[in-house]
Write a structure and sequence with these properties.
With 401 residues, this protein is mostly helical. It is built from 6 helices and no strands.
């Protein structure tokens, strides 16, 4: 029993002192390591804080710079959008001018064609390919060429308007994206460490494959700006071309219209002069007809007046043939009666002039009929040119649009 209960192991006082010293040394060493760790931690914290603040400040500056870049390009896009919208609106007014000018050419063309058709109703020698007809044909050709030119220009204008609107759409889409990006960067610029609703995101630092480089970003907007400038310049050039075309075509149409009108005026004057001369000739013929009719009447009366004396003279000669015997003498009475009958017979035979006069009268009648027909031809031509054509042409003018 005494062996089982043993006294605890005793340490030497020097061991106790050594243990105490070791504890102190170990504690002091640990304390030093802890102090160094605290100091290193504080330095690290200070460095991290400085780095974080610097980085955050740099990010804020980058965001601010980015906002300025976006605002710059947004302003550029806004300016180009305003310009292209204004240019498209102006070009639309030019399109309206083209449409009105094109529409205004239809009636003059119809009238010119009607004039040509009406002038086909001239008859006789008046159905001539005169200067009026030549200029009318030329006017129809000019009008058709102008209509074709205006039509092509209108198609070109519609295409330019489409291109302008396409550029406008691209600018608006770019501006919309710029506006959204600016709103997002404004939101980011206003965020602070104490802002609510800030949180961690596991995918925040993940680079998306669809990200574009800053150079591509600039190139994209710059390309939209350049396209807007290009189409605006094309639109400006087209407007200048339209102005020139409208001015030139109106001038050409007016000039040709004046030429045609002058040709009509000259032709009407020529026909009136010809008609007047024909009427003068007709009056002369009518006077000669009347004179010839009087002459024929006088000849017929003269012939009729000689019948009595001829019958008396021949009756006397016949009666004196029955004188008896020696009384059947060729005395002065017989001689004179014979001469009288011969004279009257000769005078009657000289009335062949009556046949000639009647033939001449027939010729005069034919000339009268021919002249009257020709005057009717001239009257028909005057009616067509002066009434149908010239009055119809007066109702339409060439307007500048």
């Amino acid at each position: 029993m005494a062996r089982l209960v043993q006294a605890p192991l005793k340490f030497h006082p020097s061991e106790w002192d050594l243990a105490k010293q070791m504890q102190r040394a170990s504690t002091e060493s640990q304390k030093c390591r802890s102090e160094r760790t605290v100091a290193e931690s504080q330095r690290l914290l200070d460095e991290i804080e400085r780095t974080t603040q610097k980085t955050q400040s740099d990010v804020n500056k980058k965001i601010e710079q980015r906002q300025k870049e976006i605002k710059f390009w947004k302003q550029e896009l806004d300016d180009k959008l305003e310009q292209i919208v204004h240019e498209t609106e102006v070009l639309l007014t030019f399109k309206t001018r083209l449409e009105k000018s094109l529409e205004s050419c239809q009636e003059p063309l119809v009238i010119a064609q009607k004039c040509l058709l009406n002038r086909q109703k001239r008859v006789g020698i008046d159905l001539v390919h005169d200067e009026v007809e030549q200029e009318l044909v030329k006017e129809v050709e000019v009008l058709q060429e102008v209509i074709a030119l205006l039509g092509r220009t209108l198609e070109q204008t519609n295409e330019q308007i489409r291109l302008n609107r396409s550029v406008k759409y691209n600018l608006e889409m770019d501006l919309k994206d710029k506006f959204t990006a600016l709103m997002i960067d404004d939101y980011c610029a206003n965020l602070t460490n104490n802002s609510p609703n800030i949180s961690y995101s596991d995918t925040a630092v993940k680079t998306e494959w669809k990200f574009v480089s800053p150079e591509d970003w600039v190139d994209f907007s710059n390309m939209n700006v350049e396209k807007a400038d290009k189409q605006r310049n094309s639109s400006l050039a087209l407007r200048a071309l339209i102005d020139a075309i409208l001015s030139q075509t109106a001038s050409d149409l007016r000039r040709q219209r004046q030429v045609v009108n002058a040709a009509f005026t000259n032709r009407v004057k020529e026909v009136k002069d010809a008609k007047h001369k024909l009427e003068t000739l007709l009056a002369m013929v009518l006077d000669e007809v009347a004179s010839q009719e009087k002459n024929i009447a006088a000849l017929k009366k003269a012939i009729a007046d000689k019948e009595g004396p001829a019958r008396v003279a021949q009756t006397r000669l016949e009666a004196r043939k029955h004188r008896p015997n020696v009384e059947l003498c060729y005395d002065p009475v017989q001689h004179r009666l014979t001469r009288e009958v011969q004279e009257i017979t000769m005078n009657i035979q000289r009335q062949d002039t009556l046949a000639e006069a009647e033939t001449a009268l027939k010729g005069l009648r034919r000339r009268q009929l021919s002249l009257e027909e020709e005057i009717q031809v001239k009257e028909n031509s005057l009616y067509i040119d002066e009434v149908l054509c010239m009055q119809m042409r007066e109702s339409v003018g060439i307007n500048s649009f």
